[in-house]
Design goal:
By secondary structure, the protein is an alpha+beta fold. It has four helices and twelve strands. The chain has one domain: START domain (Alpha-D-Glucose-1,6-Bisphosphate, Chain A, domain 4, 2-Layer Sandwich). The strands form two sheets. Strands 1, 2, 3, 4, 5, 6, 7, 8, 10 and 11 form a ten-stranded mixed β-sheet that branches. Strands 9-12 form a two-stranded antiparallel sheet. A hairpin with a 5-residue loop joins β6 and β7. The longest helix is centred in the last third of the chain and has 27 residues. The radius of gyration is 16 Å and the shape is globular. The N and C termini lie far apart (49 Å). GO terms for molecular function: cholesterol binding; cholesterol transfer activity. InterPro entries: StARD5/6 (IPR043556), START-like_dom_sf (IPR023393), START_lipid-bd_dom (IPR002913). This is STAR5 protein. May be involved in the intracellular transport of sterols or other lipids. May bind cholesterol or other sterols.
């Protein structure tokens, strides 16, 4: 049976709304000048869900331009954790199935990964943009021999305008990734928050370059 990509995307977006409103039980695990990262056990798989909140010094549209999940987008240029991003199938104007590959990390302790997700993009009346995703399978994306297949459980980013501050954007992100393979949990638990902090730091540099 074919996967209901639109339905899965909608469910991921609904989960993002729930996480956004859920203030309970988050435990802080990393803080930099750009982002505060907290976590709690995931209800979706045997790992953690991470919440990252930071303010990016740029207009929401500039931030969105850097992070939006589109073919040929800017993300592969600035995000060190994304090597390649391709749209496998455009399901609708707002929903697509995408394949992302990541380079090796932690001095090659973590080998290259691939992720296949359905991604939904939504704009709210207040100007907030949401990108939500979750893992799916797709006939055009069988597992590749040189990659370990990882799985993103419902995850996403809210790009939130700050009233009266046009050149600042609140970026609220949720990460919930099973990076696959046989890595000790301690490696995963230190790698993901560090990788999230890197994402915010590199994004901040990217929007500055975009504005320049």
């Amino acid at each position: 049976p074919a996967m209901d990509y639109a339905g899965l995307a909608e469910a991921a977006a609904a989960k993002m709304e729930l996480y956004r409103r859920d203030a309970n039980g988050w435990r802080s695990c990393r803080r930099t000048s750009e982002v505060a990262v907290s976590w709690k056990p995931s209800a979706e798989f045997a790992g953690n869900v991470y919440r990252a909140e930071g303010t990016v010094p740029a207009h929401p549209l500039h931030v969105w331009e850097c992070i939006k999940p589109v073919a040929g987008g800017l993300r592969t240029k600035w995000d060190q954790s994304v090597k390649d991003f391709e749209v496998v199938e455009a399901v609708s104007d707002t929903v697509s199935v995408c394949r992302t590959t990541t380079p090796s990390a932690l001095m090659k302790v973590i080998s290259p990964r691939e992720f296949v997700d359905v991604v939904l993009i939504r704009q709210f009346e207040d100007g907030t943009m949401l990108s939500a995703a979750t893992n799916v399978e797709h006939p055009l994306c069988p597992p590749q021999p040189n990659f370990v297949r990882g799985y993103n459980y419902p995850c996403g980013c809210f790009c939130i305008p700050l009233p009266g501050e046009p050149d600042r954007t609140q970026l609220l992100s949720f990460f919930q990734t099973d990076i696959g393979g046989y890595l000790p949990q301690t490696v995963v638990d230190s790698f993901i928050p560090a990788s999230i902090a890197g994402f915010y730091s590199n994004l901040t540099k990217a929007v500055k370059a975009l504005k320049a």
